Structures are given as C-alpha cells and as structure tokens.
Please model this.
Amino acid sequence: MKVMKKEIGLLVLLAICLCTGCYDDKGNYDYHEFNEITIEDSGFDTAYILTSFVDTLKISPKLNFKLGESKNLTFEWVARSNGINFPEYPIGNERDLVYPVTLPTETYTLFFKVKDTLNTMEYSNATVMQVQDLLTSGWVVLGENSNGEAQMDMITFSVDTMVLKDILHDSGLPVLRNPEKVWVVDNYTNNMIHVSTGDGTYRLTRDDFKGGDHTHLKYNFFDPGLLEHYVLQDVAQVSGYNRAAIIDNTLFHNGFLISSAVFQNPANHYQGSYDLFTIGNKIAYNPKGMVFMYVVYNNDEKRFVYTGGRAYASPAGYCDTLKDTRDDIGIFSWKTGLDYVTNISSRFLDGYSYTILTDGAGDYYLYSYLLKYEWGMDKMVKNKRYLLDKATDIDKAKFFGASAQRSYLIYATGSKLYTYDYIAEKVKLIEDFGDQEITLLHYDILIDTRAGDDFFYVGTYDPSKPKETGGTLTRYKVVNDPNNIIVEEVPEFSWSGLCKIKSIDFKRY
Model:
C-alpha cells in the first residue's frame, strides 16, 4: 500500500508540474475559433452559354462567414475544359468576376476558389459554361477581292446572324489567288478547313481559322512532291473518313479509317497499269446511303469508271470500268462515246446521281443512275437516259444541281436560273438577275436533310460594286408540288456585302 501511495503521489506531482508548464506558456500561441466560409449557390445555380469576343461573364458571389467578414482571403476563378487532357484557364483573381470571354470553343467547368490565408483552408463552388465563338457555325464563303486575291467571309449563326469579313487576313496564310473551293472537313483524325486556290490548298484550324506554310495540303501526301499545284477541285466523303478527291485533275481515293487524312497514289488508272487517264472535274456519289463507291468519267475512253466499294477485290486505289449486262444494255451503255459536261450528286429518292454529256453537235443528255449497297456489296444501277432538248440554254449552263424531292434539274447560266423537269420535259425560268452575274449554285445535300428539306443557294455578283462587297448569297427552296414547278426564295435568307463568291461550305461546330 505504501508503494502504491508513493506512486500515486508522484503521479499527482507530475500532473501539477505539467499544468503549471502549460499555464506559464499561455500567450506563446495565437488560438482562433474556426471562421468557416460558405459560398452561396447564387450565380452557380445556372449554366452559361457564352460567345468569345462578344460576351462578358459577370458573377458576384455571396460569401457567408461564421465569425464575420475576413480580410485574409485570396480568390481564384478557373475554367477547366471538359475536353481531352482537361486544360485549365485562369480567368480572374478578384472576388467579383468580370471576364470578357476569350476562351476556345468548348464546354467548361467554372470553379470559384476562396482561400483563407490565416488557416490555409480553401472553399469552392462551381458551375458549367458552354463557350462558342463567332466562327463556331455558319456558311464559310470563299471568293475573291478586287485584286484577284482569295477572300474568305463567313455568315455566322453563332450569335445573331451576321457577316464576318476577310477572315484570311490574319490567318497566317500567304496571299493566294484564283480561289477554287472551300471544304470544311468532318474527319476522324483531322477536322480542318481546306482553302483551295490556284496557288495551292491550305488547311486552317477550326477554332480560329489559322494556318501557315506548314499546313499546305502537300504535307498530307505520302510524297509531298507528287503534284505541282495541289488545287483541290472536288471531294466526296462517306462515313466521316472514306473519301475520294480530285486534286490537280488527278483522282485520289482513301478508304482507311486511321490514315484517312493522308492521300496516297493517284487512282485514275486501271489495275496493272499506271498510265493515268484524264477525268471529269466532279465526283458522283450517294450522300444518302453508306455506299463506298465513287464514280468519275474517263474522258479518254468516254466512259464511266469507278473507284472504291467494299466487296472483295474492289478497286481501292485504282479505277475499274462498269460492265453492261443483257438486262440493262437497253437503258444505256456505260461506254457512251460522248463528251463530259458535269457530274451531279443528289438526295432524290434513294440518292440518285446524274451525269450530263454532250455529243458535240448540240445535243445534251442526262444519265441517271443509283449507287446502292445491297447484300454486302456496293453496286451501280442504271435508271434512264434523258435527252435535254427542251432545256433552255443548257448549252450555256455553268452550274448544276438536282432537287431532293422532284425530278428537277437546276442549272444557271449568265444571269438566269432555270428549273427543268426531265421527266415531264418542262422548263421554267426561276429568276433573271439582270446585270448581276451568277457565280455559284450550291445544292445543299449534306446539312438540311430532313424530310421536306430541298434547299439550294445562289451566289450573285453586282459588277457595279467592288468584288470585296459585291457578292450576295440567297437561299431557295423547291416546293414539292406534283402539278407545278415551284421554286421560292426563302424569306430572310439572303446576305449581301460578301466577296465575289466562288465556293461555300457549312461549318457545324
């Protein structure tokens, strides 16, 4: 018991010493009650849709303090992209955010972070914002200015519809002449905007339309020295990657998903021979079906040929002839002996294609056929050949299209726009623009593709105005009337002040 008492006494003495030590050291440490901060949801309870270089994002967050307002705070606003690699963009260091938006087109998570430097605690709240820009969506217009240089304008639908002028001015591209074609590609590996001119074809980034010498199309070839000018004249694409293109009057086909942005060897030759034959300047294909078959016209032999397809031994990197059969030789022969005028692709019925040919003596013919996928194979089916002897001014026509709903051929020559029903053999002058010149007829077979959509666009130029601003783009609609040819201008879908238009394409995003 004594031992126990002695041990107890020593423990009591030790406890007293410890308490005394703590008491004597009071004042050496600054103790504070925890000042918790709460960020209210006001300003963070909604998603924001913003346009770069147009909108200013303003948020004044409300903070609640457990013990009262603190001055020991720092603030940070960060926009984190929800895209690949989640890049972060610091956009502010003040409590109240006032940010003129300049972010790339993307969906972001916007974080507001508050840090108490006294106790190093950090608090945050977040919301979602979608950023677009004036270049996000709309019609990209390629034409020329008064100096004969390529000019690119854009009819943007990103905010209110407006016309943006001379986008190439700060693009990083050299001065280019003789504009040919603009192609806004939607591709598995390389989503870029192609600007084709007589001085070559260059690619621009989608977000800011920037490019340079390093984005020349020749670098998309296995052999960059293969061609001389690299002028992209026509292109057809199926399923986002399978494509055929005519560049410098030479046909190329690529049906491989991973390398779909790379062009290989010319395809306008037959298997076993590398003698290139000359071809027409347009590709016929089916934009309505998943048919990996593309048709061009062999000018040397005056016959139809094709590349692509998915059956065994299909000509993926060369061309093959189309064979007449006993059942279809009475419709027409694939070896026509006629001169090429143009190819037309359409969304009519199952996606008819057309070729216009002439005998050189004044007669013009419309060949109608269907590219279709059936029983695991792509094939070509003849429809009919039509004599176009009642199509007024067809010999003067420069631009062609075909209706998506009716058996109409749409064509333009000089200042006149015509519609011709090739079955009923009826022609109608839709509009005469008088002193203005028709410079473009673009039939929309890829964008407005819902039931009943049948739109095309006409570009005109007023020679009394500078080429920089003398162009107008107007939208027309074919009315599905079985008894009358009715083509109407779509109200509020005409834009003036554009360059002298050569080519247009639609940018979706």
Q: What stands out?
A: Confidence is low (pLDDT under 50) at residues 1-29. The helical segments are 2-24. The longest strand covers residues 486-498.
